[in-house]
UniProtKB/TrEMBL annotation:
CDD domains: VOC_like (cd07251). InterPro entries: Glyas_Bleomycin-R_OHBP_Dase, Glyas_Fos-R_dOase_dom, VOC_core. Coiled coil: none annotated. Gene3D superfamilies: 2,3-Dihydroxybiphenyl 1,2-Dioxygenase, domain 1 (3.10.180.10). PROSITE patterns: VOC (PS51819). It comes from the Bacteria. This is VOC family protein.
Length: 140
């Protein structure tokens, strides 16, 4: 398989609340919630970086579309890593997430491997890591 990941979709329990968190709280660009005219179709897309979008979609609608049972969610299934250019930027993003209503689970700190990171959860419990890795600078 040649990797061509273009959309990361997060299942949410309250689409409007999560939409406001990502758009207003974190400032991610979006054209809004689309597909509301379709049963199981309401979704919002946010631009992340060239060729990659974040989607939020009701968990029950994902279960319907994928034909799997709706199950309990777990914050430890995966994390989303947001790499930044400095320790100061980690602190800034963590504070922005906190102001937006995120739960800080792991305040920013120096890591054992020489970086600096912290974790927060969005309104649905999805776990984000904000990280500065001195060996791995993000592409702007």
């Amino acid at each position: 398989m040649k990797p061509r990941i273009t959309v990361i979709t997060l299942g949410v329990d309250n689409l409007e609340k999560s939409f406001l968190f990502y758009r207003d709280g974190l400032g991610l660009p979006t054209e809004g919630i689309v597909g509301e005219e379709f049963e199981h179709g309401a979704v919002a897309f946010f631009d992340l970086q060239s060729g990659l979008k974040l989607a939020i979609w009701n968990r029950k609608d994902i279960a319907h579309e994928a034909k799997v049972p709706l199950a309990e969610s777990s914050p430890t299934e995966f994390t989303l890593g947001h790499n930044v250019n400095s320790k100061t930027e980690v602190d800034h993003v963590m504070e922005q997430a906190k102001r937006a209503g995120a739960t800080i689970t792991d305040p920013a700190h120096d890591t054992f491997w020489g970086g600096y990171s912290g974790h927060f959860q969005d309104p649905d419990g999805h776990l984000w890591e904000v990280v500065w890795n001195p060996q791995w600078q993000p592409i702007e």
